Amino acid sequence: MEKMEFQNIIAVTNRHLCKGDFLEQIEKICRLHPRAIILREKDLPEVEYEKLARDVLKITNQYGVECRLHFFWKTALKLNLSAIHLPLWKLEAMTTAEKAAFSMIGTSVHSLDEAKTAMKLGSSYLTAGHIYATDCKKGVPPRGLRFLKEICDYADIPVYGIGGIHFDKNQIEEVIQNGASGVCIMSGMMNL
Fold first, then answer.
1. Rounded Cα distance, 50 and 165, in Å
2. Rounded Cα gap, residues 94 and 128, in angstroms
3. Can you point out the beta strands (E) in the chain?
4. Cis link prior to 130 (omega < 30° from 0)?
5. pTM surpassing 0.85?
6. In angstroms, what CA-CA distances link 103 with 98, 121, 138?
7. What is the rounded CA–CA span in Å between residue 78 and residue 15?
8. Backbone angles phi, psi at 47, to 5 degrees
9. pLDDT of 52-108, one tens digit each?
């Protein structure tokens, strides 16, 4: 893939999928210059997450790649970050003043109703999925491209497809042709 194509990709982390050193993997990802990296380490308590975020930010800052923390918005503020990615329920729990501290808030959605709610609550962009079958959601049928198109047709903010998306030019183009601004890739990014 050409460097420009990575501008359509948001890397999503999961250190458990990483075969080698996680921070070395972050550096490999940064060399590709994706649109952003979402540090999505759901199993960590906030104190450990903050420590990891500090280490990751040293690398992402060196390469000029935006790192968006996931879930822990207070940690993001503590680290002077203006972008965050949240599950919808977490966004719903924030006050208007708390949300105003961020210039960008991404939200994960799994239905058109969730997309509508996320937009009303001030989301800057959406990740919609899961689009294709994925081991991350074993046994849960994918929502598919029709679902993605429905979200993209409704949304007046960028939408990124997520779930089962690989470094496959045709697959990425298929997602973008259905209205998405780009894709989120987890497994492929963790195993470059």
1. 28
2. 21
3. 9-12, 36-39, 66-70, 83-87, 104-109, 125-129, 159-162, 182-185
4. yes
5. yes
6. 11, 13, 34
7. 23
8. -65, -45
9. 999 999 999 999 999 999 999 999 999 999 999 999 999 999 999 999 999 999 999
